[in-house]
Amino acid sequence: MKNTPSDSGEDKIFASPQSEVAPFSFNESVVDVFPDMINRSVPGYGEIISSIPKILRHYIDSDTLIYDLGCSLGATSLSIARTFPTLPITIKAIDYSDAMVERCKQRIGAYNYQAKIDIKQGDICLVELAQCNVVIINFTLQFISRDKRQALLSKIYDALKPGGIFILSEKISDEDALMRERLIELHHDFKRDNGYSELEISQKRSALENVMVIDSLSMHKRRLREAGFKHQSVWFQHFNFVSMMAIK
Ligand SMILES: C[S@@+](CC[C@H](N)C(=O)[O-])C[C@H]1O[C@@H](n2cnc3c(N)ncnc32)[C@H](O)[C@@H]1O
Ligand SMILES: O=C(O)C(=O)C[C@]1(C(=O)O)C=C[C@@H](O)C=C1
């Protein structure tokens, strides 16, 4: 995807030694480099974003309502809107970070499509969801406190119309200690291959500690079942990053 100049910076946030690494936050400096950061940090990110419209092909009609929860700069919403440029679908994109929401609003205006993308600042644990056809949460549940995750998934299940689809992408922690270690090594190799230094990898890791709390795949599966989803599958995995789909 083409970036607008304001968010096309190279991620150098953790490149210099910091005497004390502050907890990671989706602030203005992160927003400036976010597309570069997420593409170089999340294996399969681009493939997930470009595959989601293909998965949704069978769920999308003119009056479809889609939620993109934790939308950041709107990559998922834009990917959908640009794949179906003639359909007047409605996408409600919500993010907690003011900086993300402001930049997302500038970004989505830069393209032509019929979809109405409505971007709002808000906490996805608190917002009310209308009856909808599709809900997507890409790499955001991991930033929500664990004790709120089940309630959020249950709210999503309740909001979906029968036959509606939920897409959940997350970093996961393998339950097998050896595999967990190997997958973390592979992820760090992925970051190295993308130009991050040892210092950048370790300082970001410290910044994310206690901010990004990751679950096992079986925990995600259990939560989806508990929320009411009877049909679920992992449709994508690259190292310790997965995307799941669940149908009501
Ligand atoms: C890794 S980014 C998501 C990436 C995005 N979905 C994409 O595919 O490009 C996580 C986002 O979740 C947002 N976030 C974290 N907690 C949130 C909450 N409680 N409500 C809404 N957004 C939240 C952050 O502000 C951040 O923009
Ligand atoms: O696990 C890591 O080291 C990451 O950098 C992952 C991750 C994510 O999954 O959201 C963390 C923060 C940024 O938003 C980009 C990527």
TrEMBL record:
Family according to the record: Belongs to the class I-like SAM-binding methyltransferase superfamily. Cx-SAM synthase family.
Its keywords, alphabetically, are: S-adenosyl-L-methionine, Transferase
Pfam families in the record = Methyltransf_25 (PF13649)
Q: Name the PANTHER family on file.
A: CARBOXY-S-ADENOSYL-L-METHIONINE SYNTHASE, TRANS-ACONITATE 2-METHYLTRANSFERASE-RELATED
Give the originating organism. Agaribacter marinus
Where is S-adenosyl-L-methionine bound in this sequence?
Y45, G70, C71, S72, D123, I124, N138, R205
What HAMAP family does the record point to? Cx_SAM_synthase
Under Enzyme Commission nomenclature, its number is 2.1.3.-
Q: Which Gene3D superfamilies match?
A: Vaccinia Virus protein VP39 (3.40.50.150)
Is Lyase a UniProt keyword of this protein?
Answer: no
Catalytic activity reads: prephenate + S-adenosyl-L-methionine = carboxy-S-adenosyl-L-methionine + 3-phenylpyruvate + H2O
Q: What is the protein name for this chain? A: Carboxy-S-adenosyl-L-methionine synthase
The job of this chain, per UniProt, is described as: Catalyzes the conversion of S-adenosyl-L-methionine (SAM) to carboxy-S-adenosyl-L-methionine (Cx-SAM).
The protein's assembly and partners: Homodimer.
